[in-house]
Amino acid sequence: MKTLWRNARLATLAGPEPWGWVEHGALLSDGDTIRWAGAQAALPAGLQVDAEVDLGGPLVTPGLVDCHTHLVYGGQRAREFELRLQGASYEQIARAGGGIRSTVAATRAASDEQLFASARQRALALMAEGVSTLEIKSGYGLSAEHEARCLRIARRLGRELPLTVRTTCLSAHALPPEFDGRADDYIDAVCAWLPALHTAGLVDAVDAFCEHIAFTPAQTRRVFEAAQRLGLPVKLHAEQLSDQGGAALAASFHALSCDHLEWLSADGVRAMAAAGTVAVLLPGAFYFLRETKLPPVQALRDAGVPIALASDHNPGSSPGLSLLLMLNMACTLFRMTPEEALRGVTAHGARALGLHDRGTLAPGQRADFVAWDLAHPNELAYWFGHNPCRRRIVAGVETGR
Ligand code: DI6
Ligand code: FE
Fold first, then answer.
1. Ligand 1 lined by 284 (C-beta under 6 Å)
2. Less Cβ crowding at N or C end of the chain, within 10 Å?
3. Which has the closest alpha carbon to 391: 39, 56, 32?
C-alpha cells in the first residue's frame, strides 16, 4: 500500500541542510518503507498512490529510538532514593547489598505476567512520546532461568506492541548473592549460558557493567569473547563512575556503543573513534545520581564519534520514562545542541543498535515517523514536562498515540 503524507515540515536529518530541513514537505511510504521524501513541489509527476493523508502542517521527524533501557524488572527503589538524599551514595548502597541486588530479588519474585504488565506500561509511556524502536536489557535476573525470562518478556513486548524491540543480554550487570565472593565463577556461568540464550533467539547484543562496584576489565573481556564466539555484537556500560579503560576494551571488540562515559579518557575517545563505536550519553542517570563529572562531549565531537542519547530507564539510577526530557537535559547539562540531541535519539541511537534502516527520513528507510504539535525541531529539546506528540506512524501504519 502506497500512502502519500502531505503538508509537513520535515526534519529529515538527511542531506547537508541543518536538520535536513524541508519547509513544505511530503513523504511517500510503500508498505513499511519510505520511497520518497522531500519538498512537496518536487513530488514526481503522475504519482499513483492508494491513500493520501493531509497532515495539516506539523513538524515531522523520524520515529525516536531509545537505545538503552532496562525496562523489565520487579519492584521499585524509592526508599533507596530517600537514603541517597540523606547522604548515602549509590556505591555505598550497592556495596551494602541494596541497589541492583534488591531489584534482582524483586524481579525473581515477580510472575511473568507481572513483569510483562509493568514493562508494557513503561513501553507505552515511551511510545506516547514518539518512540518506535526500543532496546531492552536483561540484567535483573542474573541466572540462566531468570535472564531468559526477562529477555522473553522483552521479545513479547516487540510482538504485541507497534514497536521494534532489540534485546541485549546484560547478565554481567551485578554479582547475584549465590555467587558472593566468586565473581570469576559467575562470569564462567554467564559465558556458559549465553549460547543457549542466543540459540533461543533471545539476544541481539551483549553488554556488561565494567566498574569497580561491578566487573573488572578482565571479566568484561571474557564476556566479550563469549559473545564474539557466537557472532554477537557487544556494548558496554563504561566509565560511569570511574575510568576503568572499559571503552578502549570495548572498542577493541568493535563495540556498537559505549554508554555513560562520564569518566572517559582521551585514549578511550580515540579508540572509540577508530572503531566507529557510538557514544551513548545518559543524562537521566547523571541527573538522578547528582553526578558532577561531565562526559567529554567536545572531545567526542572533535574525534567525530557519533553521540546518541537514551533514557537508561531503570529503577536505581534513572527511573524516568521520557526520552524527550533527555533531549532537554542533554542540552542543559551536557551543552549539546538541540540538533545533536535529536540526532542522538534518531540516527545515532539507531546506529548504537547496529540498525541502519532507520533514524532519518530518506528513501529506503523504514516508514517510522512522528508528527508533533510544534513548528520547529529545536522545540523538541526546549519544552519539558509536556508531550507534543500528535501522531505516530510505525512501519507505514498510523498507531494510536
Ligand atoms: N549503570 C546504571 O546506571 C544502571 N546499571 C548500570 O550498570 C543502574 C541499575 C540499577 O541501579 O538498578
Ligand atoms: Fe544502563
1. no
2. N
3. 56
Is the distance from the beta carbon of residue 143 to the nearest atom of ligand 1 less than 6 Å?
A: no
Residue 243 phi/psi, 5° resolution? Answer: -90, 105
Pairing, β 21-30 against β 33-39: antiparallel
**Residue ID of nearest Cα to ligand 1 atom 9:** 316
Give residue 298's pLDDT band: very low, low, confident or very high (50, 70, 90): very high
Nearest residue by C-alpha to atom 4 in ligand 1: 317
**Helix/strand/coil (H, E, C) string of 214-272?**
CECHHHHHHHHHHHHHCCCCEEEEECCCCCCCHHHHHHHCCCCEEEECCCCCHHHHHHH
How many A from CA of 271 to the centre of ligand 1?
24
Is the pLDDT assigned to residue 97 strictly greater than 90? Answer: no
**Residue in the block written with cell 541485549:** 168
Give the pLDDT mean for 229-248: 98
What's the pLDDT band for 401 if we cut at 50, 70, 90?
low
